[in-house]
Design a protein that fits this description.
Elements: E1 29-31, E2 39-40, E3 43-44, E4 52-57, E5 60-65, E6 92-96, E7 101-105, E8 148-149, E9 180-181, E10 185-186, E11 217-220, E12 223-225, H1 231-253, E13 277-281, H2 285-296, E14 300-304, E15 316-317, E16 322-323, E17 330-331, E18 342-343, E19 349-350, H3 354-362, E20 367-370, E21 378-380, E22 390-391, H4 392-411, H5 414-417, H6 422-436, E23 452-454, E24 462-463, H7 469-474, E25 494-497, H8 502-512, E26 516-517, E27 520-527, E28 532-538, E29 541-547, E30 549-552, H9 556-559, E31 563-564, H10 568-576, E32 578-580, E33 583-589, H11 593-596, E34 602-606, E35 612-615, E36 625-632, H12 635-642, H13 646-657, E37 668-675, E38 685-688, H14 691-702, E39 708-710, H15 722-750
Parallel strand pairs: 13-14, 13-30, 14-26, 21-34, 27-31, 30-39
Antiparallel strand pairs: 1-4, 2-3, 4-5, 5-10, 6-7, 8-9, 11-12, 15-18, 16-17, 19-25, 20-25, 21-22, 23-24, 27-28, 28-29, 32-38, 33-36, 33-37, 34-35
């Protein structure tokens, strides 16, 4: 495929013809050869020197060279300047310059090779590991399009900085020993698997690769195809050179990952004639998302859920509900009041979780603000202030004030002020004073941000005395809790569904509840040449089903224990994913005592086992309320509580809550606890990937094993959040849609 020359505004795909172009005198030029030309034939061009003239023959462009002139080496005119294609690696890519351009195709390859030219049919040899030409001086050096190299190939260099996704701003120049001569007429083409036209454009990023040589294949004396680099391999090489941030940015730019904040939709093509059956294992957020999208696209869906309820780890507990803990089945004793509920699983929605918010809109789930950060909440640490709790606003204000004072003093020293001129130093001091609320002498003497000791309304407010900075350092609150609410998934505005997080599950069930079978225990998943066989039991009755595809949201470690015939590498990947041992306690209080302490929503922190206390963000000034009396993230805390009886857990939570709120136990009526790694059909919460395991196994699980797809937040980079589960479902749906549409097209072609 040939793209428009650089700067072209046309997006029309140009398909090359195999025949030689007619004489140049019979066709109009694609670009002018005059050095001062900036626009020719409606195509914008840079200045051109003596390289030659682009000609158009039907739908193909070709280059007519001056017969005796070699390509000059000029910064703005020499061939070989690289532009970026908007497609992925694995699709066609365009090399363009003011005088020539070349389209090559990348696919995947077993062995490293190098860029070659097709003019004199330089072909791979056994003695040359690159099988072609590669030069060492430049990060990415290659012969200009259409050139032939008169010298023998150099040894393959270990190239340390290559990037075919980003622009090469410097032209290629042959070394003195290498004479590049272009044939009089040369046309380049390459097949592409993609129908979308490529739009060559400059890129702002500097070149950065980390690889050996790009592989190639000489198709003919007129065609060069660079092959055998998959998108996965390409992103791995970019990640090796620029880190995960670089690979993520490239994947986002290529459309492999949705940009943060972008509206996400599944876009499954609606089936018109043929039907496809999909069996979905698990009625959590990922499974229900998949069923919802497939059902409205005309697929036949069967959702099998092992539990007595849908929702997975979206669990809202109310009075009379069952908490299905292995060994300790509990019945919640909250009052039967719709405002008294406990989100034992998912409990908040960040504003940038746009896929989940879109479903809330579609399913008509009303939302309200969730108060995640409250500076009036408490910070407690046994190592600080003799174990007495302080307001979060006091700790944070004083910590920033003291740090700003230290920085202000450093700015005035000769060493730090040396890089700044007088104006810069003064502006930096102004910033530091504002950040820490310092006085005019750059001292921190307290701030009204921490609250007044007394006064402030009818009389002049008196500032609180700052804490002793050494006392603040004794606490670990500054390690991550102090900036907890500044993370992108914790910052305001946070939301929650009105009446409990399971309102989202109810919204799905209103649409597709007819597709869900509860108490369905999956026994076996076997891959077939066409489709998947699933065996399951409902209330002891064994059943079997065959489906074209299987979407599986069962936790990976439980899937690995099923009767299956998955490939070995797939099973290895299933087994490496670890599970979190998160633990929560919900407590019913007969009186909202925390509101008398001016706490309305938010989180208090403690270094005790309970870790957090959450205050309800709704129902202000009502009589009763539900507190989250403990929320532990670490495995040690989760194990400690799980090994207790449910009654002992409540007692420990009350005793530790007393350290923050004296008389705490007098207000607690009852409670319920949820240790997620002991919950039936779950045995864990929030997948945990070790970096080395994610690097090796994550992509394998993201890809299907035959017609079997793993989904859920466990197959995402955002585990523990509903958004990660939805995005993983969308990823699987997109691949299923592609496969089905390919099958339909093939069947249509045979008719």
């Amino acid at each position: 495929m040939l793209d428009s020359p650089p700067g072209s505004s046309s997006k029309r795909r140009i398909l090359p013809k195999r025949s030689q172009p007619p004489a140049a005198t019979q066709r109009r030029a694609c670009c002018c050869a005059h050095p001062s030309a900036t626009r020719c034939c409606g195509v914008r061009s840079t200045a051109m020197a003596t390289a030659g003239t682009w000609m158009r023959s039907g739908q193909a462009c070709w280059l007519k060279r001056k017969p005796t002139q070699a390509a000059p080496c000029r910064p703005s005119t020499a061939p070989g300047i690289w532009r970026t294609s908007q497609r992925t690696a694995g699709s066609a890519r365009t090399s363009t310059a003011s005088t020539a351009y070349l389209t090559v195709t990348l696919s995947g390859c077993p062995a490293p090779t190098g860029w070659v030219t097709s003019g004199s049919a330089l072909s791979p040899t056994a003695s040359h590991p690159c099988g072609g030409w590669n030069s060492t001086p430049a990060p990415l050096t290659r012969p200009p399009p259409g050139s032939s190299i008169a010298t023998s190939p150099r040894p393959c260099a270990n190239v340390s900085s290559i990037n075919s996704l980003v622009a090469r701003a410097d032209p290629w120049c042959p070394s003195p020993r290498e004479s590049a001569q272009l044939p009089q007429q040369h046309r380049f083409s390459a097949p592409s698997r993609h129908a979308t036209p490529l739009i060559p454009r400059s890129h702002r990023i500097k070149p950065a690769w980390h690889a050996n040589c790009l592989p190639f294949q000489v198709i003919s004396s007129k065609v060069v195809v660079v092959s055998n680099i998959s998108r996965r391999k390409l992103l791995e090489m970019i990640g090796a050179a620029g880190g995960s941030a670089a690979s993520y940015q490239v994947a986002t730019a290529l459309g492999l990952v949705a940009a943060p904040g972008a509206l996400v939709k599944a876009n499954v093509t609606r089936l018109r004639e043929s039907r496809r059956r999909v069996v979905i294992l698990g009625a959590g957020v990922a499974g229900l998302t998949a069923a919802y999208e497939l059902d409205r696209a005309g697929y036949e869906c069967i959702v099998l859920e092992a539990s007595h309820r849908p929702g997975g780890r979206v669990l809202t507990v109310r009075g009379g509900d069952i908490v299905d803990e292995v060994g300790h089945r509990q019945i919640c004793n909250f009052d039967r009041d719709p405002d008294l509920y406990f989100n034992a699983g998912a409990a908040r929605i960040p504003a940038d979780h746009v896929a989940l918010l879109q479903y809330c809109r579609e399913l008509q789930v009303p939302l309200e603000v969730f108060v995640n950060d409250n500076r009036n909440a408490l910070v407690h640490d046994d190592r600080m202030f003799d174990g007495k709790p302080v307001r979060a606003r006091e700790f944070i204000t004083d910590a920033r004030g003291f740090m700003s004072e230290l920085l202000a003093k450093s700015v005035l020293t000769e060493q730090l002020s040396q890089p700044f001129d007088a104006m810069d130093a003064e502006r930096l001091l102004g910033f530091v004073r504002a950040y820490g609320d310092l006085d005019s002498n750059n001292f921190y003497r307290g701030s009204r941000r921490a609250g007044y000791r007394n006064g402030g309304f009818l009389t002049q407010g008196q500032l609180k005395e700052p804490f002793d900075f050494s006392e603040l350092l004794n606490s670990d609150f500054w390690r991550f809790q102090m900036h907890w609410a500044e993370g992108n998934d914790q910052a305001a505005t946070m939301m929650q569904p009105v009446g409990g997080m399971d309102a989202i599950i109810d919204g799905f069930m209103r649409r597709i509840g007819r597709l869900v079978t509860l108490h369905a225990i999956v026994r076996r998943v076997h891959l077939r040449d066409q489709g998947v066989d699933v065996a399951y039991a409902v209330n002891g009755v064994e059943r079997r089903i065959h489906a074209d595809f299987c979407i599986n949201s069962i936790p990976t470690h439980l899937t690995a224990g099923l009767d299956h015939n998955f490939p070995r590498d797939y099973v290895d990947a299933l087994r490496v994913v670890q599970r979190g041992k998160l633990f929560k306690i919900g407590l019913q209080a007969r009186e909202r005592f925390w509101e008398a302490d001016r706490i309305y929503g938010g989180i208090s922190w403690t270094n005790q086992d309970i870790t957090q206390i959450w205050y309800p963000p709704t129902g202000f000034h009502r009589r009763k309320g539900i507190l989250l009396g403990a929320y532990t993230f670490g495995d040690a805390g989760g194990e400690k509580f799980a090994n207790m009886t449910p009654e002992a857990r409540i007692n420990v939570a009350i005793a530790q809550g007393e350290r923050l709120h004296p008389g705490y136990g007098n207000y607690i009526e009852n409670g319920v606890s949820v240790p997620w790694h002991r919950m039936n059909h779950m045995l864990g919460c929030s997948a945990r990937w070790r970096p080395e395991d994610r690097h090796v196994h994550y992509t394998r699980l993201q890809q299907p094993a035959g017609a079997h797809y793993m989904v859920g937040d466990q197959i995402s980079h955002h585990p523990g959040w509903q958004e990660g589960a939805i995005r993983s479902a969308h990823f699987a749906l997109a691949d299923i849609d592609r496969r089905v549409q390919t099958q339909i097209a093939q069947l249509s072609a045979r008719r």
